[in-house]
Each structure stands twice: as C-alpha cells, then as structure tokens.
Amino acid sequence: MCWPRCALCILLIQLFVVPCIHGLGILLPLYIYPNGTNCAAWSPVFDAISANSNAQWYIIINPDTGPGPTDELYETCVTEIPASANQIIMGFVDTTAGNVLGDIDTYAGWPASSRPHGIFFAKISATASQLSTYQSYVSHARSQGFGFIGLDPGETVTDTSYFSMANLTNTYEDSYASFNPASLTGTMSQQSVILVNSPTTGTYTAVISQLENLGVGAVYISTVADTSQALPAQLSEFASEVASAKGGGSTGSNDSSGTTTSNPAAGNKPPIAAIVGAVIGVLIILLIFLVIFLRLRRRRSASAPEADRVVPFIEVRNLDAAEPVALSRSWNTDIKVPPPALKASTSADNTTMAYPNLSVRVSYPTTLRLSGAPTYGSAWGSPPSYHNDD
Ligand SMILES: *[C@@H]1O[C@H](CO)[C@@H](O)[C@H](O)[C@H]1NC(C)=O
Ligand SMILES: *[C@@H]1O[C@H](CO)[C@@H](O)[C@H](O)[C@H]1NC(C)=O
Ligand SMILES: *[C@@H]1O[C@H](CO)[C@@H](O)[C@H](O)[C@H]1NC(C)=O
C-alpha cells in the first residue's frame, strides 16, 4: 500500500535531489598514511571535506598499495573521515601486482563502519584484449557488494565498454600545464581527470569551470608530482573552488595561475535557474518529510500495540488526603488494574479497561501505579502523569 507514494518519493528525489548534487566532483587519492594521534596526517583532508561537505567527494583510500594486512589504526581513521553529500570511498587495488580478487575480498571483510563503498582499480590498460580480465574483476567486486567502481587508465579511452563497466573512469593523469579539456572524449559525466604539478599559487577556477561546463564527473588537482603521495599544497583552495563551481559554470574572470589566490566565490554568481531549482528542491524535500511524518504518525496511532510503545509505568501519587487529585485523560490502554494496588475509584471498569477514557480519582494518601509489565498489561500513547507529593 506504500508503493504509489514511495514511488512518487523516489521519483521526486531523482528529479530534484540528484541534479542538485551532481556536477563536478572532487576526486581525492588519499594515499598518505594517517600517522599521528587522531589520524593527524589526514587532518588537512578532514578540514577540506568539512569545509566543502556539499561537494561530491570521491575518496580513494590506500593502506598499503592495496588493503595490505589488517591495520586497525587505518580502519579507525577511515571512520573519522567527515561526512559529506553522497560521499564515495573507494579502496585502491593495483591491477598489475598481487592478488586483485584477494584484495577485493580483503576490503569486503573490513568492519562495516570502515568498509569502502567501492573499488578503485589502478594501473588499467584499457585495451580490447584486457577487457574480459577487468570485467571479471569488476563483477567480482560488485558481487562482494561494492556498488561503485573506479577505473584508472590515466589516458584517453576509446573502447566505450570501459565506461559502461565502471562508474568513474580516470582518463587523464598528467601535468596540469599540458591538460586541454577539449581533448576529452566519451561520456563526460563518467570521467575524472588528475592534474599534477599544478601551480602552487593562484586559482584553478579557469580549468575547473571548463570541466564543470563539460559535465566532467570529477577532478583532482595536485601541486605535487604523480609519483608523490603527499597532499597538495593547495588542497583547501582546490576543494572550495570545485565546491563553488558546482551547479553552473562560472561567468567570472578566468584568472590564470600566477596571481594571488582570490576568494573563489567572488564574481561567480549562481544563475537564477539554479537558485529557483534549489528552492523548489528544498520545498519538495520538506513535503516528502511531511508525508513520511504524517504516515508514521497515522500508523502509530492506528496499529496494534507493540512492545516499543509500552510505557514502563504510569504513576499517580497523592499523599495529601485533604487535596484530592483528579486525573482525567484519554489514552489507549489495555491495562488490567490489579485491585490491591488501586485504592481509588475509576470511571471505567477498574479491572479491565480496553481503550477507555480513563478517569482516576485518588482521594486519600496512596500511590497508584499502573505498570506496563506484562502482569498489568500495557499502555501507549500519551500517558498521564501526576505527582502531588507534598
Ligand atoms: C608513519 O608511521 C610509520 C610506521 O610507524 C613510519 O614508518 C612512517 O615513516 C611514518 N610516516 C610519516 C610520514 O610520519
Ligand atoms: C554504479 O554503477 C552501477 C552499474 O551501472 C549502478 O547500478 C550504480 O547505481 C552506480 N552507482 C552510483 C553511485 O552511481
Ligand atoms: C582567459 O580569457 C582570455 C580572454 O577571454 C583568454 O584570452 C585566455 O586564453 C583565457 N585563459 C584561460 C586560461 O582560459
């Protein structure tokens, strides 16, 4: 009976939420080891994610050129990665070394709290002859529950079978200076690019807005060489520039490198359509929550009693004989009041009350305790509670 409404919810979520969160994502090969207390070596990454939690992050973790032996420190640090919208964490697997299927199984065996969402297959050579090998890796990963597959040929891929096999295929991994966005071919939204040796000053907004306008899936821009595992010197600038490019291309100046780093949001006004879309999206989401809330509330009041709705006890105390307590409330109950405990009169039957308006009057010093324990039955809804101890 939920189906028509659930289907509507899913449709609305797809129509409004998904377009809001797609756009250029941030690819982050997180290859350094999280040394130090509180995973200190990763703290610049934690800061960048927290400051840009609206961006789509694709984080590649790599304990030891693959999962390596069990490393609880590493697994704990993975759980410390701050949350962000639709965050995807992939486990690095080197397809040219070791045991690819075994590595996948190792990640699959991690505790649920640190287990990656997907697998990033590194060092792919996207040729026709290798296709079936990679397809078997990917289907093994999917069978182990990894819903997101990244491939890293690091160069232009002409065989579209590779795009359809993966969720994200990295088709450029070379210097920032020699990158030309116009050279990208194929389905842009399923591609990422890795630009290394980028300038250590200035903004990357020109190339970021070109990638955003092309509809490219994700980008990583690093000041260090491809062979280095160090984090980029401009990690936070890069992340905030991608985050603020999201949802519409920049019409601002295309500052090239060499200038000082300016506020990436400045001169980068979101178009009216994006604002209207966002407002409608938020209203729809609120509506969905309202529908869900009303449904839950209706179900709660309409269905049979369940253990989790049992109120532990209901207590009415009046120790002052001169000041009787009158208690009159409506609530649902199937309480069987044990006669010895109830030295009071009730308007309902005082041994079995099925869904009455219960009215209890305690007229002299006593304690009336209606227990939710099975002996006494149970009550749910909004229980009466009255104390007059003095
Ligand atoms: C991280 O810790 C390991 C093991 O203690 C050590 O070998 C390595 O040099 C450390 N790396 C850094 C960057 O501190
Ligand atoms: C990844 O690709 C699979 C297969 O095409 C698809 O079912 C899944 O929804 C994709 N996941 C994401 C997060 O896009
Ligand atoms: C920035 O824009 C100017 C003028 O439109 C153009 O000549 C220049 O090539 C652009 N620079 C980049 C890096 O796109």
Q: What is this structure's SSE topology?
A:
Elements (H helix, E strand, L loop, with lengths): L2 H19 L3 E6 L12 H9 L5 E5 L10 H9 L7 E7 L5 H9 L9 E5 L8 H13 L4 E5 L7 H6 L2 E8 L15 E6 L8 H10 L3 E4 L13 H11 L26 H31 L10 E6 L6 E6 L1 E2 L11 E2 L10 E6 L3 E6 L7 E2 L5 E3 L2
Parallel strand pairs: 1-2, 1-8, 2-3, 3-4, 4-5, 5-6, 6-7, 7-8, 9-16
Antiparallel strand pairs: 9-14, 10-13, 11-15, 12-13
Helix pairs in contact: 1-9, 2-8
Bound molecules: 2-acetamido-2-deoxy-beta-D-glucopyranose (NAG) (3 copies).
Number of helical regions: 9
SSE sequence, one letter per element: HEHEHEHEHEHEEHEHHEEEEEEEE
Main beta sheet: strand number and arrangement?
A: 8 strands, parallel, barrel
Tell me, rounded to a whole number, the average pLDDT: 76
Terminal CA distance reads 52 Å
> What is the number of E strands?
16
Form type: globular
> What CATH architecture of the largest domain do you see?
Alpha-Beta Barrel
- DSSP helix fraction: 25-40%
As laid out across the biggest beta sheet, the strand order is 1-2-3-4-5-6-7-8
CATH fourth-tier homologous superfamily of the largest domain: Aldolase class I
Rg over C-alpha atoms, rounded to the nearest angstrom: 30 Å
Which small-molecule species are bound to the chains here?
2-acetamido-2-deoxy-beta-D-glucopyranose
Query: What is the CATH class designation of the largest domain?
Result: Alpha Beta
Estimate nothing, just give the exact number of structural domains: 2
Tell me the CATH topology of the largest domain.
Answer: TIM Barrel
